[in-house]
From TrEMBL:
Pfam families: ADH_N, ADH_zinc_N. The keyword Flavoprotein does not apply. Residues 14-342 form the Enoyl reductase (ER) domain. It comes from the Bacteria. The lineage of its organism: Bacteria, Bacillati, Actinomycetota, Actinomycetes, Kitasatosporales. This is alcohol dehydrogenase (NADP(+)). Its cofactor is Zn(2+).
């Protein structure tokens, strides 16, 4: 066991504060990672504030982890001391169900994945996330960060990157396809970069035109305000894919009308409340409404390699750990361009 410094929420809705946690001894298939940077994902806030239901406290959030391997277990062959690595939303799964065997560990049907924090591992111990100095993770749930990617801008790719890459790939974003990204936040800005790099024609649908210059710079071909009703008239029947990154409820009928026949609206922002959708808004054109959760370990590695090849990192605001609570409030009010990343040397 190793005692490491961390930032934790002691109770639901309580401010995060500096504390210490225990990390398990490095097992034969584990790696010890010196965490360098940890992104702040909106889902950290949903969980720390119990927006998604009862959570476990104290909670050390953080599932956008980038760091350097400092020790490896005796059976680890894929990593060595000094390797640049990342850890995302999960640190284990059953490894034997069809989905795990297919590399879709995020959809593990053998009890579900073990989430990086706010969960209990197979050893019965609580998991604690990336707002900490170090983490011990089974090597099968660690990915390599290519040399071309700086660790600070790579950290958010471990959740925001894969959460947008996986559905864009699954629904075949690419040349000749029109993709709308709803919301230009932490997820949305990566959705724009990745969809553009995949060769799709990209439109941002945002409440206002406030971030239009950013959106076009990040790779969007068009940028429309959803507060303007003419947007919905002009873009009717346009898109093959709508990637919705907004976690507030939307007027689904209005957005579904923007899809072409057989188009899909994929939701990766998860509202805290149930949503209402009229079936009549999509049966007419065989449209579909779907959702997608992060991506498996092989696809997460593929995403990192793709991002390195195309020079895609997240747009970040680097903060010291004592600014986490302030950052949470700013994420909730959409006041970040586009991801806060904690310099864990300041914990
Ligand atoms: Zn996340
Ligand atoms: Zn499984």
């Amino acid at each position: 066991m190793t005692t490491v410094a961390a930032y934790a929420a002691p109770a639901a809705k309580a401010p995060l504060e500096r504390t210490t946690i225990e990390r398990r001894a490095v097992g034969e298939s584990d790696v010890l990672i010196d965490i360098k940077f940890a992104g702040i994902c909106h889902s950290d806030i949903h969980q720390a504030r119990e927006g998604w239901g009862t959570a476990m406290f104290p909670m050390v959030p953080g599932h956008e982890i980038a760091g350097v391997v400092s020790e490896v277990g005796s059976a680890v062959t894929g990593f060595k001391v000094g390797d640049r690595v990342g850890v995302g939303c999960m640190v284990d799964s059953c490894r034997t169900c069809d989905n795990c065997l297919a590399g879709l560990q995020q959809y593990c049907t053998g009890g579900g994945p073990v989430w990086t924090y706010n969960a209990v591992g197979k050893d019965g111990e609580r998991t604690y996330g990336g707002y900490a100095e170090k983490i011990v993770v089974d090597a099968g749930y660690v990915v390599r960060i290519p040399d071309g990617l700086a660790l600070d801008v790579a950290a958010p790719l471990l959740c925001a990157g894969i959460t947008t890459y996986s559905p864009l790939k699954h629904w075949n974003a690419g040349p000749g396809k029109k993709v709308a990204v709803v919301g230009l936040g932490g997820l949305g800005h990566m959705g724009v970069k990745i969809a553009h790099a995949l060769g799709a024609e990209v439109t941002v649908l945002s409440q206002s035109l406030r971030k239009k210059d950013d959106g076009l710079r990040l790779g969007a071909d068009d940028y429309r305000a959803t507060s303007d009703p003419t947007t919905f008239e002009e873009l009717k029947g346009t898109f093959d894919i709508i990637l919705n990154t907004v976690s507030a409820p939307l007027d689904f009928a209005a957005y579904l009308s923007l899809l072409r026949t057989d188009g899909a609206m994929v939701n990766v922002g998860i509202p805290e409340e149930p949503v209402r959708i009229l079936l009549s808004s999509f049966f007419g054109h065989r449209r579909s409404v779907s959702s997608s959760g992060i991506g498996g370990i092989p696809e997460t590695q593929e995403m990192l390699d793709f991002c390195a090849e195309h020079g895609l990192g997240a747009e970040i605001e680097l903060i010291s750990a004592d600014r986490i609570n302030e950052a949470y409030d700013r994420v909730v009010s959409s006041d970040v361009r586009y991801r806060f990343v904690i310099d864990t040397a300041t914990i």
